[in-house]
Design a protein that fits this description.
The protein is of the alpha+beta class. It contains 7 helices and 4 strands, in the order ααβββαβαααα. Strands 1-2-3-4 form a 4-stranded mixed sheet, with helices on both faces. The radius of gyration is 17 Å and the shape is globular. It binds zinc ion. Zinc ion binds next to loops. The site of zinc ion (ZN) has 7 residues, from loops.
């Protein structure tokens, strides 16, 4: 492990510690702040972490390692590769299959990655864009999301 890795790792640990909670809990809190109601571990393919039955939408909160995000947080396991690699590969295939099944049944799927929790403002916008298609239909989403006035309002409303 080099210094940058060590630094990043301890920064991640601190970030996680200061939240004092799990990624799912953070996402649930952000969703609640948006005023949305959801079900936990609803019986659907892959047992989505949050299910919005009326909206026919689900959210998965994925750990970057277990679900092989391929982001900078993920490093291939150095030891026991014959055990880990097929296991991780199976998880990845299952994820793809579950999302395909959900889509085929008319469910929209959002995957939130563990590494996205570092930027809550951006994540909150992503959740909002996913859950509230009305702003999409209005066709002003891009400018709206980038508008600093709107962002300021959003921050003052939720924080
Ligand atoms: Zn990631």
């Amino acid at each position: 492990m080099d210094n940058i890795d060590a630094e990043r790792r301890s920064k991640n640990m601190r970030a996680i510690k200061s939240q004092d909670t799990l990624p799912e809990v953070i996402v649930r809190r952000l969703v609640r702040q948006l005023g949305m109601r959801y079900r936990l571990k609803y019986l659907l393919p892959g047992k989505p972490d949050l299910t919005f039955v009326g909206r026919r939408k689900v959210i998965f909160v994925h750990g970057c390692f277990w679900h092989q995000h391929g982001c900078r947080l993920v490093r291939p396991p150095k030891s026991n590769q014959s055990y880990w690699l097929p296991k991780l590969e199976r998880t990845k295939i299952r994820d793809v299959e579950n999302i395909a099944k959900l889509n085929a049944a008319g469910w929209s799927v959002l995957v939130v990655w563990e590494c996205e929790l570092k930027d809550e403002a951006t994540l909150r916008r992503r959740l909002q864009e996913f859950l509230e298609p009305s702003s999409e239909q209005a066709g002003i989403l891009g400018t709206f999301a980038e508008n600093p006035f709107h962002l300021g309002m959003e921050l003052s409303r939720y924080e």
